[in-house]
Design brief:
Helix content is about 0%, strand content about 50%. The chain has no helices and eleven strands. It has strands spanning about 1-5, 10, 15-25, 30-40, 45-50, 55-60, 65-70, 75-80, 90-100, 105-110, 110-115. The N and C termini lie far apart (about 35 Å).
Amino acid sequence: VRLVESGGGLVQPGGSLRLSCTASGLAVASYAVNWWRQAPGKEREGVSCIDKGDGKTYYSDSLKDRFTASRDNAKNVVFLQMNNLKPDDTAVYLCSADSSCLRPGHYWGQGTQVTVSS
């Protein structure tokens, strides 16, 4: 099983990025896929989860108005659309897969760096 995040980079405040979590060895439709982020000196923070099956989404309260998770079952990819980015969004963003959104993640990617700066 492998999860690979991509789409990170440097963006100005107010900009947008779309992150991808591409899976191999598992079907994203059959797993709950979480997005997390970790900023330097801070604890890892849960960003969103897209549940297995019906794809119901859950978000951190502080991010739900700007971030949107989605899934392409045919391509076996989970996306995180991030809009109106702020400097505080700077972090490494990681995806994980597990049997439930309530579980911390059995499979993990390596992360992609997002830097929001002018």
